[in-house]
């Protein structure tokens, strides 16, 4: 901190997942493997969907954008966390902290809207099959552009209130990255009403997106059951996997933001779910279990080997 008549925090101290040196070395090796898997897996999906004409459909267009957002969502904090496992003093500048808050809400907000668009794509494909091409040829771009716009508006609405608040006291953030509920507690003034406003915005967005996803999945299951008992088991298995991943993404974030005034020991663990685990599970559930994607990957590999 700069000392003077009006001292202001210029950096924040981040707390690691563990203070034990041995555990930090283990976490370093564990998370660097996780992060590399996230980047390589999602890059493979993006490259495959771009390279293979058979995947140039609305569903895979949305999927490739999901993979790109997952890479970004895991990159805003995970590399910093990995490096910090080797550092004795884990600090981040004020500007870096604000950038992490912006990126978290930008990419997480965008992913929420993109997941809703993907669920709508499946709803149209199953429930409005004859009109799928006409509806989704427009909606695919609307969904992607809408997700990015939603992410920008959501992150700006969060950051515009906090960036100019007076930070002049404690600077310890009880997490491995800067998150809004933790950072706003360090402000040197009463921010109770502001916290309620900002956190309600995040909760409303997460809960409404989660409810829309569940409703769409239920409608799809009901439609499949009514028209085809044979496809019911396959649809149930697929949607169960989707609901599991969606719950792992939305559940921890809703929990963290639903009780912003209390710190729970599990908060840091829950944060890992939507910054590390979900970006790895998404390609496994949405892409690598898909026969068309796997077939396209094999064709792509054959061409690369043949050349």
List keywords for this structure.
307 residues; mainly alpha; Rhopdopsin 7-helix transmembrane proteins; three-stranded mixed β-sheet; 10 helices; 3 strands; 3% strand; disordered N terminus
Explain this structure:
It is built from ten helices and three strands. The chain has one domain: Up-down Bundle (Rhopdopsin 7-helix transmembrane proteins), CATH 1.20.1070.10. Helix 5 (132-162) runs antiparallel to helix 7, helix 7 (192-227) packs antiparallel against helix 8 and helix 8 (232-258) packs antiparallel against helix 9 (267-287). Helix content is 73%, strand content 3%. With 307 residues, it is mainly alpha-helical.
């Amino acid at each position: 901190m700069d000392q003077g008549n009006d001292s202001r925090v210029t950096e924040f101290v981040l707390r690691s997942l563990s203070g034990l040196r041995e555990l930090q070395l283990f976490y370093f090796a564990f998370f660097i493997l996780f992060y590399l898997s996230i980047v390589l897996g999602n890059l493979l999906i993006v490259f495959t969907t771009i390279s293979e004409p058979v995947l140039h459909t609305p569903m895979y267009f949305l999927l490739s954008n999901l993979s790109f957002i997952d890479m970004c969502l895991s990159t805003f904090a995970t590399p910093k966390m990995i490096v910090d496992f080797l550092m004795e003093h884990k600090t981040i500048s004020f500007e870096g902290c604000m950038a992490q808050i912006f990126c978290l809400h930008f990419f997480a907000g965008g992913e929420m809207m993109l997941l809703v668009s993907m669920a709508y794509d499946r709803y149209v494909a199953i429930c409005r099959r004859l009109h799928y091409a006409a509806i989704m040829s427009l909606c695919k771009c609307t969904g992607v552009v809408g997700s990015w716009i939603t992410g920008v508006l959501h992150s700006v609405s969060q950051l515009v209130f906090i960036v100019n608040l007076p930070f002049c006291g404690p600077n310890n953030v009880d997490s491995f990255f800067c998150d809004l509920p933790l950072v706003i507690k360090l402000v040197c003034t009463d921010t109770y009403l502001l916290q309620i406003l900002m956190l309600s915005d995040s909760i409303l967005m997460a809960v409404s997106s989660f409810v829309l996803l569940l409703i769409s999945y239920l409608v799809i299951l009901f439609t499949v059951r009514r028209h085809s008992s044979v496809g019911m088991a396959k649809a149930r298995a697929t949607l169960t996997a989707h609901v599991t991943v969606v719950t792992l993404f939305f559940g921890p974030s809703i929990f963290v933001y639903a009780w912003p005034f209390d710190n729970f020991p599990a908060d840091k663990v829950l944060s890992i779910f939507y910054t590390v685990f979900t970006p790895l599970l998404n390609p496994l559930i949405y892409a690598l279990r898909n026969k068309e994607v796997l077939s396209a990957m094999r064709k792509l590999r054959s061409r690369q080997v043949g050349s």
